[in-house]
Design goal:
The strands form 3 sheets. Strands 5, 6, 8, 9, 11, 12, 14, 16, 17, 19, 21 and 23 form a 12-stranded mixed beta sheet that branches. The chain has 470 residues and is an alpha/beta fold. The protein has one domain.
């Protein structure tokens, strides 16, 4: 990735705390039923196979119990019958920024989306509530045969590629929330990179929730053909509401032989959002999938990016930072499934808990006994800022057979009063001293984030520290 250009991508939480009154052309109403599914399919003009896929997802959603091994107390606050599952102005994604409706345009202009496209990105998709409002890819990238469109356009315009992999990496019955997404999905990205094509600059999607009592259920499918390389970045915001908002996405990655996919997320949801996401990649022979994940904000995040290493020599990696403030629970981690010889996985997780915030690492590593030459490394480090902060680590590591290797390391530390006092004696305020300590804790990990994000991540930590002292 090129680092000679550093766009001012601002992920300050306050930048997303605004909303505009909207007149929606399409509204599925409140609550979920089979009629809701039919309404969404009718509005989107789904092919028959997609409507059937939705109905099957709905049936599995009704059958699946709410997860009991996760944050059940928080999950009980989700009332599915109070949620609005589809809202749109009937927009078709515009290829020119000037064509985007004014009320939607001013939202994304305030968030800086078109500016970032001009400065840095190979392509941008901007989703507003249920549908993409803007989608564009630079001509040079398009000429290489790269496809970058919304999921709705992908399933209609490229069915031969889309249908082959859609729902194959994450079946609709994987869990209750993947089933819900399968029933009501709308928006998200579809990307296909042809064999040998290396996209030099990132493609980016931005997901914005504007409506109250709303659920956003985008579905993203990315396929890198043999020897292809791609970096994809996504950002998320929502304004603060008194009522709960649900975000439940599904992301499927497919890296064919020798391909590389890097997927970067900077989540900056407001404190009323339940962020319940299923993300998984399938890595074939000598392929590499790397998730870089930054979770800041939301009331509850449950997200465990995974890689199934299907081919020999495949590699999977998850690098994550979670920052949890008052009233927040960041339940994050990774899932690594080794399914071929000589596969390698790496998990590096760092969490920071402020005030009454809670951070949880929940991971799974599986190596069956018939494999050989598999390696895993897992590192989990937690930092507590206050006496009421909480952190938990739940690693589940199953390594069988001979010739496989695994190592796990976990640590919990707290910023000491002596350390803060020492820095204050050298002219720093208490907030600045705490910020310096926290930035030092995550610095080695932040260096793995793209340059255009690392400065802003440090800045956001500074802002969080200002509210955590006293």
């Amino acid at each position: 990735m090129s680092t000679d250009t550093k766009p001012d991508i601002d992920i300050d939480r306050s930048i997303g705390d605004f909303r505009y009154e909207m007149d929606y052309a399409y509204d599925a109403g409140v609550g979920l039923s089979e009629a809701t599914i039919d309404y969404i399919s009718d509005v989107k003009k789904d092919p028959d196979w997609v409507r059937a896929f939705r109905k099957e997802g709905y049936r599995k959603f009704l059958e699946k119990p709410m997860p009991t091994n996760w944050a059940t107390k928080d999950l009980e606050n989700i009332v599915f019958e109070n949620i609005r599952y589809y809202l749109s102005q009937g927009q078709v994604p515009k290829r020119s920024w000037d064509e985007v409706p004014d009320d939607i345009k001013k939202t994304f202009e305030r968030l800086g989306i078109p500016e970032q496209e001009r400065k840095f990105l190979s392509g941008v998709e901007a989703q507003f509530d249920s549908e993409a409002a803007y989608s564009n890819i630079k001509a040079a990238v398009g000429e290489q045969g790269v496809i970058f469109v919304g999921s709705t356009d992908g399933l209609k315009e490229h069915p031969e590629i889309f249908k082959k992999w859609f729902g194959k990496v994450i079946p609709s019955g994987d869990n209750k929330f993947s089933a819900l997404n399968s029933a009501v999905f709308s928006g998200g990205s579809f990307i296909y990179v042809p064999p040998g094509v290396k996209v030099k600059h990132p493609l980016q999607a931005y997901f914005r929730i504007n409506a109250q009592n709303f659920g956003q259920f985008e579905r993203t499918l990315i396929i890198a053909d043999e020897g292809a390389e791609l970096t994809y970045m996504e950002g998320c915001t929502a304004p603060k509401f008194e009522t709960a908002t649900l975000h439940s996405a599904v992301v499927e990655l497919v890296a064919l032989k020798g391909a590389k996919i890097q997927y970067i997320t900077v989540q900056n949801w407001s404190s009323n959002v339940f962020n319940l996401v299923t993300k998984r990649g399938l890595a074939h022979e000598d392929a590499e999938i790397k998730w870089i994940d930054c979770n800041i904000g939301s009331r509850l995040t449950m997200k465990y990016p995974g890689v199934v290493m299907k081919g020999k020599g495949a590699r999977g990696e998850v690098v994550s930072i979670a920052l949890s403030g008052d009233g927040q629970h960041q339940d994050t981690g990774a899932k690594m499934i080794h399914a071929a010889d000589n596969t390698t996985s790496n998990i590096i997780s760092k969490s920071i808990s402020l005030g009454t915030g809670r951070s949880t690492y929940r991971g799974m590593v599986h190596v069956p006994k018939h494999l050989k030459g598999c390696k895993n490394n897992t590192e989990c480090d937690a930092l507590l800022i206050n006496t009421n902060s909480r952190t938990d680590t739940y690693p589940a590591i199953s390594v069988r057979g001979q010739g496989n290797a695994v190592q796990h390391e976990a640590s919990v530390s707290q910023i000491s009063s002596e350390q803060i006092f020492y820095m204050q004696q050298r002219g720093l305020s208490e907030a600045a001293a705490m910020s310096l300590a926290v930035n030092g804790f995550v610095n080695d990990l932040v260096q793995q984030f793209p340059m255009e994000y690392s400065v802003e991540l440090k800045r956001l930590i500074d802002l969080e520290m200002e509210g955590s002292v006293g």
